[in-house]
């Protein structure tokens, strides 16, 4: 891997774009939530190492210049070194806006460990390249990491090695989330916590499709029996264009039932160095046994 360096910063956002520094590299990428005008001068945006443009009507796009970025590099985020790569979909392997959710889940896992006298077991669905899994494992949790993409799970395992957490108790599974949850329910498996970051729309193994608005509530209903009695937590994220915050909290709360109370809604946003704020979606945080979800 090339170019090992520091962390992450959102430099500016606006006009449906985001300007970010990941380690040594500055990237200019689309940002549907960045609807205000840019605050940084044009020269700052022009200094980006690469700009991603999505082809009209296509799911993928291209980075320009084509060789503006190395095949891979590392950056430190949440105290963890992670491998980054420019992908055809415009991602680099890290969603910085999800850090507060990972921290909240890790705090809940630590509280459960203290209360139960054993490590918390946490299921991470749609787990991508492993940020939440690694934050949880670092906090002492036993993690089951599930993603439908074999290359992405391999990427997450490399991240564990890069972060020095390869020896932590993480099960790496290439599985469709809905099918895996159904099998775990039949097996009678229980988890102290569940973290899920479902896409707005996607394709699963075997050609199946996933639509957040239609499929989230049935999935959370399937998850509910997997949660340990009396003491558990669940965090579910949604991108800005998928669901309104009250709708997300309503779906999660209804699917979990009365024991969840009213899930707290956390805005997923990042403050830019320029002073603007990038809206990036919402998270519903539910827990049982200790009252309303806390920060």
Taking Cα atoms only, what radius of gyration do you get, to the nearest Å? Answer: 19 Å
Q: What helical percentage do the residues reach?
A: 25-40%
Pattern of helices and strands: EEEEHEEEEHEHEHEHEEEHEHEE
- Count of domain modules: 2
Q: What would you give as the CATH superfamily of the largest domain?
A: Vaccinia Virus protein VP39
CATH architecture of the largest domain: 3-Layer(aba) Sandwich
Termini separation: 36 Å
Approximately what portion of the residues adopt beta-strand conformation? 25-35%
Instruction: Give me the number of helical elements.
Output: 7
Largest sheet: 7 strands, mixed
Q: In one word, what is the shape?
A: globular
Low-confidence residue ranges: 291-295
Number of strands: 17
CATH class of the largest domain: Alpha Beta
So what's the oligomer here?
single chain
Structural class comes to: alpha/beta
Mean pLDDT: 91
Describe this protein's structure:
27% of the residues lie in helices and 32% in strands. It has 295 residues and is of the alpha/beta class. The chain folds into two domains: 2-84, Golgi alpha-mannosidase II (Immunoglobulin-like, Sandwich); 96-288, Rossmann fold (3-Layer(aba) Sandwich), CATH 3.40.50. The strands form four sheets. A seven-stranded mixed sheet has the order 11-10-9-12-15-17-16, with helices on both faces. Strands 2-3-4-5-6 form a five-stranded mixed sheet, with no helix packed on it. A hairpin with a 2-residue loop joins strand 2 and strand 3 (17-22).
